[in-house]
Write a structure and sequence with these properties.
With 265 residues, this protein is an all-alpha fold. It contains 13 helices and no strands. The chain is elongated, with a radius of gyration of 20 Å. The N terminus is likely disordered.
Length: 265
Amino acid sequence: MSARLRVWLLVGGAAAAAAGIAVGVTLATRTSVPKRQSPAPPLADDPTAPSQLVGGVRDALRAWPSGTVRRLRILAADHPRSALVRFELGLALAAGGDAPAAQQAWRGAVRAQPDSPSAVYAENALHPEAPRNNPPFIPAFTRPRTPAERLLVRGIALQAALRPLSAERAFAGAARLAPNDPEAQVAAAVGLYDKDRPALAFSRLGPLVRRFPHAQTVRFHLGLLLIYIRQVGPARRELALARAEGPGTPLGKRAQLLLRASRKR
């Protein structure tokens, strides 16, 4: 996403706040935008949206500021399963100063098409205090060698494409294929993460600490998810334990980077 889009994602927020911890994504920064000089909302990149619908959204944005909200409302009524339309409607409403209506539109985007980039953008807008997007699963292996690992790679690619439900299904499939593999089980837990209901992921990930007490991937991802809910102290403890399991491994080095970043808070 462009820098302007990141600003628009948070357009209804208060003045710049909260600090950053590098987690492979950029922490959200709240930015206020003068209403009178607001440019038109940018068109979000969403390959899941039909090209004809994208054209309709683009035309609505070109009408900014006169008629944009009305046109987007019409598109939303005509395309009830489109997250893109509702996300863009939320941006336009927020720019007009109607924050409650903007949040309602963004929640509608998540409900309408949860397995889409626009739904992820909407969740970012609804949770400006959290890191952007969902926490990524980071594998310890460098090359997939088993069917389960190939499914994990597929899930990672789907996460990168902002298709969270498809990624969750791939990770769950890997977990079924490899019930005793801590990586597959961790990926399945990470895939369940929901900013509105983070307990879903933690309830699956927490027991893996006891089941795989020396699995670096468990401690690392537990620390990563704790960052997403802004529990920095507990996150540092888990990341330190992950680093201790192998400072020279890829996950150990990533844990060290996160530990360094968290000291700057």
